[in-house]
Amino acid sequence: MTFVVPFDGSTGSEAALVRACEIGEAMGETVVAVTVVPTGNTDYARSKGWLDAAESFDSEAIVARLTDQVMAAAPDATFEHLESSRDVSGNSIAKPIRRFARDNGASMVFIGSNNTGRLTTSLSSVGDRISTDQSYDVVIVRQQRSA
C-alpha cells in the first residue's frame, strides 16, 4: 500500500509530507508526493511560488524545483507530477490526484491544511474534493511538528 500526499510546495503540503513519512516509516508504507502542474499556466505557477516574477513558464524547471523541495523535506519519499490543462479549477487539480491515489493503491492520503479551523473546506483548497473519495482514508495535517 501507499501513502499519497498532494504537494504544491506550501508549508501545509510540506507538513503533510513529513507526517506521512513519519507514519509511513513506522508502518512500512511507501510515501509518494504528487503535484498537478497546469500546462502553460504562468499565473498559477507564480501564485504557488514555482516561478519568479520574471520567469516564463517552464514545466521542467517547475518539476525540478518541486522534486528538490520534496527530497529536502522527505528524502525517503518519491515524487510524481501530473500535467493537466491550463485550467486550475478545484476539480482540474483534485481529479487527477484522486485517480492517482486509486491507481496506486493508496491506503491513506495526507492533506496539509493551513486553514486550521476550517479544515479542508476553504475555497483555496482542493482538499475537500480529494477527501470525498471513499477508496482511501484521509489524514488532515494542520502543522509540522518541531523536532
Architecture overview:
Helix 5 links the parallel strand 4 and strand 5. It contains five helices and five strands; from the N terminus they run βαβααβαβαβ. The protein is α/β, with parallel strands linked by helices and 147 residues long. The longest helix is centred in the first third of the chain and has 17 residues. The protein starts with a strand and ends in a 6-residue tail after the last strand. Strands 3-2-1-4-5 form a five-stranded parallel beta sheet, with helices on both faces.
Number of distinct beta strands: 5
Report the order of strands and helices. EHEHHEHEHE
Report helical residue fraction.
Answer: 25-40%
- What are the low-pLDDT stretches, counting only 5+ consecutive residues below 50? 116-124
Quaternary structure annotation: single chain
Content of β-strand = 15-25%
Largest sheet: 5 strands, parallel
Number of helical segments? 5
So what's the overall shape?
globular
Can you list the strand order of the major beta sheet? 3-2-1-4-5
**Overall mean confidence score, pLDDT:** 86
Radius of gyration based on Cα positions: 14 Å
N/C terminus separation: 27 Å
**Secondary structural class:** alpha/beta
Task: Offer a concise description of the structure.
The protein is an alpha/beta fold and 147 residues long.
Task: Name the features.
5-stranded parallel sheet, 5 helices, alpha/beta, globular, 147 residues, 22% strand
Which secondary structure elements does this structure contain, and how are they paired or packed?
Elements: E1 2-6, H1 11-27, E2 30-38, H2 42-47, H3 59-73, E3 78-84, H4 90-103, E4 106-112, H5 127-130, E5 137-141
